[in-house]
């Protein structure tokens, strides 16, 4: 046993020495990782051969919320095409892009990976359209706001493991909360020195102040890498998906954008990543060059107009909105009536601890349940609860020797 402990101690020491030799002075080293409840860890972080952020990645990928990535919309829903990007692919793209940027800038790849893989866990069925409906439902029912950033943290910190949470580090949770990939900046500078108190203040305000998540920045340079890698990961991939679905043609991309950053996903990723690395090397912030940033802004505007708000993919939005509203109303009524046969009890609340039951508004419980659903489960729930189910046909043999049957209801 002593020999085994000596081996593990040597491994941990080697990890620390490698960080000191390789990491930039602006990187977030593993020994700076902070847990709110360090005593809950089976193996203390300082004695674990898995560094704290590496361990956080393990916790995330083994979570229930992570397993539901597999059937969550990225941008395009209701299209029957197996090659369209789903949420599970997107977070992997963000992780790969973020890690190569982080490696070139000598940052902590483990922290980048953990934030990347966890950043979209709070996305709801039908992507951003579903998110907008849940936000409206929260406001209409006077329970605050909804945004997927904060819901990702909520799953990891307050809902996983029956309400106990995963006890992730401050740096990972903060990077997830502040990842907002829809907010583009020429420069990304961390809000260094953030505390648990400051993080929790920002977290709570995301549920009470509209669009507050757009005002916050990560506390680490690694968190900033994920924030911009989110954009780099989706901006070109969405174009490829839109071309596959014949919503746009490659030639539709404005000439100035094509010449500056490219017109295909691989060229766009390569151009943006290399420009970011070149302009951020050995600095305590991330930055694009002026011409690349302008082209990226123009491309985001192009995508917004021609893809994300393309009327061809919005024809079913009103139906989806009604589905959300009906399911929310049904679950809330079931909670009010204490109907323990309701799906919200069977699939969700039966596994939650007393603290969640006592301290969570019933309307927020319904929001949490819907937010965690995959697209297929959401559709199944709607069909089960609101679409009449066929009893089928019963067959009665004819009274002759033919063996034939006739249908009766």
Automatic annotation (TrEMBL):
Listed InterPro entries: Diverse_Catalytic_Enzymes, HD_domain, PHydrolase_assoc_dom
Span of domain Phosphohydrolase-associated: 286-383
Positions of the HD domain: 90-233
Pfam family, one: HD
Highest taxon listed in the record's lineage: Bacteria
Entry annotated with the keyword Hydrolase: yes
Listed GO MF terms: hydrolase activity
Keywords assigned: Hydrolase
PANTHER family: BIS(5'-NUCLEOSYL)-TETRAPHOSPHATASE, SYMMETRICAL, SLR1885 PROTEIN
Protein name per its UniProtKB record: Metal-dependent phosphohydrolase HD sub domain protein
Species of origin: Desulfofervidus auxilii
């Amino acid at each position: 046993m002593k020999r085994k402990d000596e081996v593990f101690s040597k491994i941990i020491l080697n990890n620390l020495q490698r960080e000191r030799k390789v990491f930039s002075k602006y990187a977030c080293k593993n020994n700076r990782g902070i847990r709110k409840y360090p005593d809950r860890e089976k193996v203390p972080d300082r004695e674990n051969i898995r560094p704290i952020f590496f361990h956080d990645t393990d916790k995330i990928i083994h979570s229930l919320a992570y397993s539901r990535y597999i059937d969550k919309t990225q941008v395009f829903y209701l299209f029957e095409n197996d090659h369209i990007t789903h949420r599970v692919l997107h977070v992997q793209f963000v992780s790969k892009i973020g890690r190569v940027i982080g490696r070139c800038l000598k940052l902590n790849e483990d922290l980048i990976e953990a934030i990347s893989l966890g950043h979209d866990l709070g996305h709801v069925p039908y992507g951003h359209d579903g998110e907008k409906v849940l936000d409206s439902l929260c406001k209409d029912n006077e329970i605050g706001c909804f945004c997927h950033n904060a819901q990702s943290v909520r799953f990891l910190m307050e809902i996983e493991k029956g309400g106990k949470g995963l006890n992730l580090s401050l740096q990972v949770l903060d990077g997830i909360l502040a990842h907002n990939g829809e907010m583009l900046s020429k420069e990304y500078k961390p809000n260094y020195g953030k505390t648990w108190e400051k993080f929790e203040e920002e977290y709570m305000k995301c549920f009470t102040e509209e669009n507050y998540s757009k005002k916050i920045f990560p506390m680490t340079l690694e968190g900033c890498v994920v924030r911009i890698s989110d954009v780099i990961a989706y901006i070109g991939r969405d174009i490829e998906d839109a071309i596959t679905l014949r919503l746009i043609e490659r030639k539709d991309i404005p000439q100035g954008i094509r010449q500056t950053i490219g017109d295909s996903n691989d060229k766009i990723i390569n151009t943006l990543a290399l420009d970011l690395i070149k302009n951020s090397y050995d600095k305590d912030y991330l930055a694009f060059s002026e011409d690349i940033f302008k082209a990226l802004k123009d491309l985001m505007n192009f995508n917004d107009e021609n893809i994300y708000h393309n009327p061809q993919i919005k024809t079913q939005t009103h139906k989806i909105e009604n589905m959300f509203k009906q399911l929310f109303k049904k679950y809330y009524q079931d909670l009010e009536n204490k109907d323990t046969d309701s799906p919200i009890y069977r699939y969700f609340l039966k596994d939650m601890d007393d603290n969640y039951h006592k301290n969570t508004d019933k309307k927020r419980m319904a929001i949490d349940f819907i937010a965690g659903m995959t697209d297929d489960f959401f559709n199944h729930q709607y069909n089960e609860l609101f679409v009449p189910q066929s009893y089928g046909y019963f067959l009665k043999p004819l009274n002759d020797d033919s063996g034939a049957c006739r249908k009766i209801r």
